[in-house]
Design a protein that fits this description.
The chain contains four helices and no strands. The chain is mainly alpha-helical and about 90 residues long. Helix 2 packs across helix 4 and helix 3 packs antiparallel against helix 4. The chain is globular.
Length: about 90
């Protein structure tokens, strides 16, 4: 678990330095939903920067954070759409 947390922090650190200027398939439903639901609270991270397993971990963590902050979490349908998008474009 420590190794995974370290990898995540390194990946996010690189992302913060490089930013995310263009999402893959920007007009796809997955990209639009990812931008709309995730980009409202923080900068969007380029999907290729993380492996899919790390994306699943991050999305699950953010679901809990949204609940904690009284923000409606992703519905099951939204969750499936975002995870499918991230899986197709993960590193």
């Amino acid at each position: 678990m420590r190794r995974a947390a370290w990898a995540l922090s390194v990946g996010l650190g690189v992302t913060l330095m490089t930013g995310c200027t263009q999402l893959p398939e920007p007009e796809s439903p997955g990209a639009k939903l990812y931008a709309a639901r995730c980009g409202t609270c923080h900068r969007l991270y380029a999907p290729p920067l993380l492996k899919f397993e790390m994306w699943k971990y991050q999305v699950d963590r953010m679901q809990g954070e949204m609940h904690r902050r009284s923000i409606p979490p992703l519905s099951n349908s939204e969750l499936a759409t975002v995870l499918d998008y991230l899986k197709r474009h993960s590193g």
